Amino acid sequence: MLSIGDLSKRTGVKVPTIRYYEQMGLLAAAERSEGNQRRYARQDLERLAFIRHARDLGLDISAIRELIALSQHPHQPCGNVDRIAADHLKSVRDKIEKLKKLEEELERIVTRCDGDHSIEDCYVIRSLSDHGLCDSEH
């Protein structure tokens, strides 16, 4: 059995986050020792590692909750799991596309200003004040 501190060290998940995951139902409520300390089993360690990796990949709590529920039925087809992953991939690609547009616009703004003007004539300040100076929606 592991203490919450041991679980934290092994997974790299902070203690308050572990408690939060318990409150959210992603992690089962821990058994308690005679001294009322939380005690975790190996399956809790594995579940927390799963949650951490999913969070590192950017999955939200609801998707993780659904994946955990689906994982409780190991002999079922994995179509719903694939759908969750594909939906998340699409979301990541959409964000990347928006970030590329943002990068292009910021690069355009920055290259229009050489730093030799006064603040009142600075193109960066003017662009931030007037969205109409932007080339595209971002």
CATH topology of the largest domain: Multidrug-efflux Transporter Regulator, Chain: A, Domain 2
Neighbour order of strands in the largest sheet:
1-2
Whole-angstrom Rg: 23 Å
- Quaternary arrangement of the chains shown? single chain
Low-confidence stretches: none
N to C succession of SSEs:
HHEEHHHH
Amount of beta strand: under 5%
Plain-language structure description:
With 138 residues, the chain is mainly α. The chain has 2 domains: 4-76, Orthogonal Bundle (Multidrug-efflux Transporter Regulator, Chain: A, Domain 2); 80-133. Helix content is 61%, strand content 3%. It has helices at residues 4-11, 15-24, 42-56, 61-71, 79-111, 123-129; strands at 31-32, 38-39. The chain has a two-stranded antiparallel sheet with strand order 1-2. Strand 1 and strand 2 form a beta hairpin. The chain is elongated and about 70 Å long.
Supply the key terms.
elongated; Multidrug-efflux Transporter Regulator, Chain: A, Domain 2; mainly alpha; 138 residues
